[in-house]
Amino acid sequence: MSNPYDTGRSAEVTDLDQVNSLPDVARVVDEMLNDLREHPADWENPTLERFLGALSATLEALPHLYANRGETLPDQPTWKAFAEALVMASGYE
Predict the structure, then answer these.
(1) Among 5, 7, 27, 51, which residue's beta carbon has the most beta carbons within 10 A?
(2) Which of 10, 15, 34 is nearest to 80 (CA)?
(3) What predicted TM-score, i.e. pTM, was given to this entire model?
(4) Three-class secondary structure assignment of 64-75
(5) What pLDDT score does 24 carry?
């Protein structure tokens, strides 16, 4: 971040749209960890305390995110929705 008005970013992961299983979520978490280790100053929520606070807010916001995309949050959570929440929490303001 180059100036005081910059905010951090979310973790950079690949193929988030292709998450369909527990191993896919594990891959996403591994990519998040690698990204945090390589770019700790870039994340909006790089500490466990900030990440967990943002994860809580992200989970509460998921229905609105899906609605904004013209989708309905499934009654039965999907691995993809879980992975999306994890990644979103890394950059949630």
Answers:
(1) 51
(2) 15
(3) 0.84
(4) HHHHHCCCCCCC
(5) 97
Question: 11 near 35, Cβ under 8 Å?
Answer: yes
pLDDT at 4 over 70: no
Look at residue 5 and give its three-state secondary structure: coil
CB atoms within 10 A of CB 80: 18
Vertex 21: Cα angle to 44 and 52 (nearest 5)? 25
Nearest-5° Cα angle at 16, 1 to 52: 55
Compute the chain's Rg from CA coordinates.
13
Q: How many Å apart are CA 93 and CA 6, to the nearest integer?
A: 11
> Residues 27-58: pLDDT tens digits?
999 999 999 999 999 999 999 999 999 999 99
